[in-house]
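Researcher: Let's continue the batch. This sequence belongs to NAD-dependent succinate-semialdehyde dehydrogenase, and it's 493 residues. Same format as the previous ones, please.
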Amino acid sequence: MTTALLSKLDLDDLVAGLPTKLLIGGRDADSAHRATFGVRNPATGETFIDVADATETDAVSALDAAAAAQQSWSATPARERSVILRRAWELVVGRGEELALLMSLEMGKPLAESRSEVAYGAEFLRWFSEEATRIHGRYTHAPAGNGRILVTKQAVGPVLAITPWNFPLAMGTRKIAPALAAGCTMIVKPAEDTPLTLMVLGRIFVEAGLPGGVLSVLPTSNAAAISGALMADARLRKVTFTGSTAVGKRLIAQSADLVLRTSMELGGNAPFIVFDDADIDDAVQGALAAKMRNGGQACTAANRILVANAVRAEFTTKLTERISALAVGPGYEDGTRLGPLINERQLGAVAALVDDAVIHGATVLTGGHALGGAGYFYAPTVLTDIPSGARLLREEIFGPVAAITGFDTEDQAIASANDTEYGLAAYVYTRDVNRALRVSEALEAGLVGVNRGVVSDAAAPFGGLKQSGLGREGGPEGIEEYIETKYIALANP
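Model: Same format as before. Here are the structure tokens for NAD-dependent succinate-semialdehyde dehydrogenase:
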């Protein structure tokens, strides 16, 4: 992308072409109350567009459309569903630069990362276009010889997907693609901070030939009202959510009334373990990716960096040099390596965690403060000498703050890594294959990166243990979240 594309004129042209209405039944619709809400650019703090604000009435209308389309969509041949998903993949890839610029504008991430998200997010469309034709049942003799066992797979039914702001495209496609492949209709409620990318994606699906009612997109400033109205309706059969553990727990409790299927991708507190036999330069590069990708605003971000004391000084010096050199600025400007945090609330939360650590004795090696001025920028930060009682060792930082602590033995590293109620991602750096396998199996995490700082892959199952969630997204496992298994007992022929 050239500098010219990043001019104010190009940004204005992009905004002028964006959809601003709800997508219900395959058509644009105003909010039932004609209400709107503003979307802010986190690099300036200013509202740059207003979009329709969905109400409970709109949610019911979307469910009306989803329920009406469910039977015909689930009966649509798998190959036809596959072709539509493949066509959507082609359209997303073809509009990749536009989508990347939009994500950098509404979420703040650097353009290079936005482009990577487009590629990653699009891959779910291609992967599940292929999985749509591979939903298998089985037919076998009953062991007792008294009949036959027929097992079939059927779509769960209408689904509510609630997506987060940190990966506006990929967290949508990771849910939409397997649901559509399985034959489910879906209502998507994108995050209030970043609704635009999924609003564009909804129109891409219309262009790809998705029948009306199969996918609705409802931006809203009142998520609780929308989810409450839908989850109280017996026509809804599943909820899939990515976000905080606190909200996930509330949704799980709500789901109990109608015994809804749930998939929950919740919070994390990822340990990043560097053993004394690791390639230190490689570990530093991995830590930079695991910590600073998306400005640290990822549930898989390295929250606690645990380094063997024998190599801690070398690692800390090298990582601090790399982090302190990161260029901070609006994501859509050339050269930016670290964008703003998503909003003022998140900026305050990160600052409070750092201040708490410093008050209790942590040492700031670089950064440690908000940058001031327009937008929600926090300086890239490295902390060391962190006391065990510091909040940031227990809570998700969700910001560009690397917190380094030491250990002496493998058992200490594992115990520290597992000392959390979360269990999403973990990272291990070592040149010893036996240690890599031993530690990976001992870590209480759904994802483990061995000598890798980025682990997500559309072809692999993503999900956590403990309070990091339920279910898996991606891989062959991902489509099972949207399928019911039915056993049919047949008499002997």
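Researcher: Any comment?
Model: The radius of gyration is 23 Å.
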